[in-house]
Amino acid sequence: MNSPLTRYRALLAEGGLGADMAQAMAVEKLEGLHKALDSYLPAEGEQGWLARFGFSQKKQRRLLWTPGDCESNEFKQGLYIYGDVGRGKSMLMDLFFSTATVEARRRVHFHAFMRDVHDQIHLWRQDKSRREKDPIPDLARHIANQSWLLCFDELQVTDIADAMILGRLFQELLGLGVVMVITSNRAPDDLYKDGLQRERFLPFIAIIKQCFDLLELNSERDYRLGRKKGIKVYYTPDGGAAEQALAHCFDRLTGGQSPKEDHIHVHGRDWTVPKSADGVAWFDFEDLCKTALGASDYLQLATLYHTVMVSGVPTLSPDNRDAAKRFVTLIDALYEHKVTFLCSAAASPDELYPAGDGAFEFRRTASRLIEMQSAEYLERHHLT
After folding, report:
1. Nearest CA-CA partner of 194 in 162, 157, 234
2. Is the pLDDT of residue 44 over 90?
3. Is the domain of 203 the same as that of 250?
4. pLDDT grade, residue 379 (50/70/90)?
């Protein structure tokens, strides 16, 4: 049988993973959910929405969310796995997702899911006939019709717009019988901590604690840190050899995953991450510093990605003043969030802005670029 547990044991036997008690406990939880899903389909009323798609002949068990109901279910409507970075949460979710027999399933980074949610709400409000109606129930039904098993990677809430939506959206999804597996760096009570109008977000935390099985992945080993150990992060001069070295670093830091395009949603607009995988984003300098991006964009990037790579940082001067200012703002955002920064550059940090108006101010950025190469900096935890 192909299941999270059998796949995990195979990886141990092949040497692809090392023994880890915390991961083993998490796999047992995922195995239980995997088996429970074999006899479960969501239902809504006597004739569930699945019946309209020809699934009514299958065995159905009703798991509808109402206050106080979750404790009586055979299994709660999902699993919330949290813990420090680098503990293997995403890897375990991938084991579960890849072995799930549910066809209507989706695995998505949480910020990409919320970007889609905002896009759907925007489209809803463009329709004058629906503008005064609440879009959340229909949006939840649309999501459930497409995928009733949702796997959310790296749930974090930094935006008040997300905070205002999540409680009602999750209540509707659970009411439709949707099952979820969630990973996060934060315990439920620490989500959106100190956020604006956080009291309006508390019902969402209550739903998570009541209707999800909570599991802290408290492994003592930081697997992500192990990938960074001994890695060189600043390559000069720029050129073919430096780019080849960055490609090797990307492969190492992502565990060999293929890069994919991603999008970051800021203040109602999207901008593109050309290459990304497993929390690593890779840009050309022109993509990141010669386009109309600002502090809010770089802060969102620093929040969402633990590692940022930039190819082709040129020598800076008054001639490319705007790009230089954006680069300074970028480095400030990455530094404050303890993001690992890799780049290929035309010169060392001290020589990157050698002369002219702005060279004196750049000294602070050069100092940060030097510090960001140190083992002490690389060992710091990413601040989301």
Report:
1. 157
2. no
3. no
4. confident
Number of domains forming the structure of the chain: 2
Burial of 209 (0-12, 13-18, 19+ CB in 10 A): middle
Task: Give pLDDT, residue 47.
Answer: 38
Kindly state whether residues 269 and 208 are assigned to the same domain: no
Cβ atoms within 10 Å, residue 261: 9
Residue 80 covered by a domain: yes
Among 216, 249, 268, give the residue marking a domain's end: 216
Joined tokens for residue 368: 């940060």
pLDDT tens track for 132-170? 788 999 999 999 999 999 999 889 887 788 888 998 999
Residue 327's domain is classified under what CATH number?
3.40.50
Inside any domain, residue 78:
yes
Report which residue type is found at 6. T
Would you call 108 exposed, middle or buried from its count of C-beta atoms within 10 A (0-12, 13-18, 19+)?
middle
> Could you give the CA distance from residue 117 to residue 191 in angstroms, rounded to a whole number?
19
CA torsion, ordered 296, 298, 300, 302, to nearest 10 deg: -150
The residues pairing with 299 across neighbouring beta strands, listed in sequence order, are none
pLDDT, tens digit (0-9, with 9 covering 90-100), for 230-279:
789 999 998 999 999 999 999 888 877 888 898 887 777 788 999 998 88
Is residue 185 in a domain?
A: yes
Q: What is the token pair recorded at 362?
A: 């750049």
In this prediction, residue 66 has a pLDDT band, given cuts at 50, 70 and 90, of very low
Burial 168-207 (b: 16+ CB within 10 A, else e): bbbbbbbbbbbbbbbbbbbbbeebbeebeeeeebeebbeb
Can you give the residue range of the structural domain that contains 358?
A: 223-378
Tally of CA atoms within 13 A in the half-sphere of 41 that contains its CB = 19
The distance from CA 43 to its chain's CA centroid, rounded to whole angstroms, is 30
